[in-house]
Amino acid sequence: MKSKILVFICCVSFFSKNVKSQVISVEGVHHADTVQYAAPFALSFWFVNIGNISLFDTSIIAKIAISPVNGNPTNWQILSFTQSIPQGIFAPGDSIFMLNTPLQGGPSLYQQSGDNIVVIWPSLVTPFLPDTSITTVLVLPNPASIQERITKKELLRTIDVLGRETKGKKNEPLFYIYNDGTVEKRITIE
Q1: pLDDT tens figures, 18-38
Q2: Residues facing residue 79 across a β-bridge
Q3: Domain boundaries in the chain?
């Protein structure tokens, strides 16, 4: 008798988890198509109860992962965030808007340059079931730093308006030619 009760409890537990996993759908996912490496970006979507039973709880948890297209799910960094359910009832046909904005203090997810996938699912289930959203995002590489070569410019020669080299005269326009290609026009007035 005890074994029959144990089997019944296991079946009920398994069935209730499967029912819950089939009632929540991820819809209306919105995020940037292209983002800069390590830059946080906003992500919004809807959880919709598409099943025929109500979910009674005070909140629902969204799980999000960003991974290279061929990334191994066991290595995903998963972000979880919670949204309250109004009146604690998530009835069939109800929807809850979910917004993750790392710029407002939410964490950023690990990203690699190139094509990545954004995977979103309710906490009740594991990814890759019908209630999981998978969208793509292109992550641009980190911009290369530009290093300026700063050298002290040296005067090559001084010429007058006719192109003759001169030591410098007062009250006459002179052109000072430097090794970096710059030319300065000066008049020293006395």
Answers
A1: 444 457 889 999 888 888 877
A2: 64
A3: 22-140, 155-186
* pLDDT tens-digit series, residues 121-148: 888 777 666 688 888 888 888 776 556 6
Q: 70 near 145, Cβ under 8 Å?
A: no
- Per the document, the length of the chain is 190
> Do 86 and 103 form a contact (C-beta atoms < 8 A)?
no
Say which amino acid occupies 112: Q
* Maximum distance among all Cα pairs of the chain, rounded to whole angstroms: 118
CA distance 153 to 71: 52
Say yes or no: domain 22-140 is CATH 3.10.50.40: no
pLDDT (0 to 100) of residue 162? 85
Backbone angles phi, psi at 38, to 5 degrees: 65, 10
- What are the tokens at 165? 């080299």
Read off the pLDDT of residues 70-109 as tens digits, 9 standing for 90 and up: 777 777 778 888 888 888 888 898 988 888 776 444 455 6
Neighbours of 170 (CB within 10 A): 9
